[in-house]
Structure formats: structure tokens, C-alpha cells
Amino acid sequence: MRTRTVLGAAVLGMLVTGPVATAAEAPSIAVRDKQIQAGQAVGVVAGCDATNFTGSKVTSPALDADDLGSADPGEPAYTSAKVKPGTKPGHYTLSFTCGGKTVTGAFDVAAGNPGAAADGDDLPDAAQAPEEDDTVTAAPAQPSGPNYGLIALAGGGVLVAGGVGFLVFRRARRRA
């Protein structure tokens, strides 16, 4: 009876803490404009869950971007950028640093002329939140670094397996 209680408590603990350990929102970065073309002014939005986030440089082979400003944990940071003139249509990446780790997103540049946005006078306001009809054109962010939730879940599994092994060994030893 005691063995079943211990085993049940261990399994219940794994089920409860596993999803909680991985529930934190992952850092991300994206270009928030719908149609992106060479020479166009665009907005960039990034999310960083680090408590000490004080801003970061945005890097991309296709963008000239201002630095991200600081933001409270869980709140997005915004900045302005311009797609470099002469950028060929294709798939490009952009990245920033969050809590010492590089976070990368992606966007596509389409063929065509962006029109008035090419002069750079109407860059989006860095502090302006996206409008409701703005959509994000980006691939999911791929933060580099360990997945602590998965590591915690695996560690818990090892502890449960070790505990069950100990109980089985102890029970077998009593019978012998």
C-alpha cells in the first residue's frame, strides 16, 4: 500500500509540475507588416521574458533597425526598421538578445515597389503598439539555449524511476 501511495504521489507530481515548468512564454521577434518589400519602413516587435531586459540591438542581413527599447517582462518591445534598398525577394532572419540568449525570427521580402514607404519618412513609431488589423509575418522564434522545462521534466522522471527501483529492490530483499 505504501509503495502505491509513493508511486502515485510521484506520478501526480510529474503531471502537475511538467506543464507548469514549460508554460512560460518563449521569447520571440517578428516583423509586423503584411507586405514587406525592399526599401519599405517596417515595425519590429519582440518579446523577452528576462527580468533584466534593458533593450537589445536588432540584427538582420535585410534590415537597418533601431535598437529595441527596454520593456517589462511579458510586455513587448517595439522598434522601427527599414528594409535595405536593393534587398532581393526571399526569406530573411532577424534576431535580438534576451537574457543572454539569441532569439531568431524570420520574415519574407516580396517582389515589388513599396511606393511612398521607400523614402523612409514614415517609419513606424517605435513605441506604437500594433493595430488590430496588423498581422505578423514571421516564422516562430527559435531561442537558442537549453529548454529548462524539458530538463526539469526529465530530471523528475529520473527521480521517479530511481525511487521505484529502490522500492522494488527493498521489497525483493525483504522476501528473500
TrEMBL record:
The keyword Nucleotide-binding does not apply. Residues 1-23 form the signal peptide. The keyword Heme does not apply. Keywords: Membrane, Signal, Transmembrane, Transmembrane helix. Residues 119-135 have a biased composition (Acidic residues). It comes from the Bacteria. Residues 59-84, 114-142 are annotated as: Disordered. The chain crosses the membrane at residues 148-169. This is LPXTG-motif cell wall-anchored protein. It comes from Actinocrispum wychmicini.
